[in-house]
Specification:
Blueprint: E1 5-9, H1 16-20, E2 25-28, H2 35-49, E3 55-59, H3 62-68, E4 72-75, H4 82-88, E5 94-99, H5 102-109, E6 115-118, H6 136-143, E7 150-152, H7 161-166, E8 171-174, H8 187-202
Parallel strand pairs: 1-2, 1-8, 2-3, 3-4, 4-5, 5-6, 6-7, 7-8
Length: 203
């Protein structure tokens, strides 16, 4: 069962805010970081988590997820296949797969992925060369094509997250809106306030 909030971070900075708020899952995604940088951030996140319960997912690299001691990996359509990744991360490690259309969802439903991500639901600025926007109505239709848990992703904020959950998402991935009103001076406290506000709105 996926938690309703699926935050995606690009660094280990202030990861404590998510552990303090009781976030049940956290993905680290740093597309342009080196393996050494990824492992350093991963180690910092593990240290910050301590003995608190929170599933840690690494984006793209099952090999680094294994080395980091993370709980799983999230894969895109151009990454290693789910079957290939499962050889590196056998169960109980978690594997997620990004999908963007009916064909990819139907194919993903036949894999050993633990969950599928569907999107972008709305326009997003956090991903270069993003796939075409799906929209709420199409998302609701596409969600019915899989029996797996679904994370909705792409342009989701605290203001529209409820509509996406109502359309059938088990969880909503939020990225940019995590940092609303954050400045260098208030970064950690504002981030935690944002996370708590988002959780209040969607739980």
């Amino acid at each position: 069962m996926l938690p309703k909030l699926y935050p995606i971070l690009d660094s280990a900075n202030a990861a404590d805010a998510f552990f303090n708020a009781g976030t049940g899952i956290l993905q680290f995604r740093a597309k342009n970081a080196s393996p050494q940088e990824i492992l350093a951030h991963a180690a910092a996140m593990l240290a910050a988590r301590g003995d608190r319960e929170c599933t840690l997912i690494l984006n793209d690299r099952p090999d680094l997820a294994l080395l980091a001691g993370f709980d799983g990996c999230h894969l895109g359509q151009e990454d290693l296949s789910i079957a290939g990744a499962r050889k590196i991360l056998p169960r109980p490690k978690i594997l997620g797969l990004s999908t963007h259309n009916q064909q990819q969802i139907e194919a993903g439903n036949q894999t050993d992925a633990d969950y599928l991500a569907i999107g972008p639901v709305f326009a997003t600025s956090t991903k270069q060369n993003a796939d075409p926007v799906v929209g709420i109505a199409a998302f609701a239709r596409l969600r019915k094509l899989t029996s797996k848990p679904v994370v909705a992703i792409g342009g989701i904020t605290r203001d529209n997250a409820r509509s996406v959950l109502d359309a059938g998402a088990d969880s909503v991935a939020i990225i940019s809106d995590l940092y609303r009103d954050c400045t260098a001076e208030n970064y950690a406290s504002q981030l935690q306030q944002n996370v708590e506000d988002i959780l209040r709105r969607i739980l």
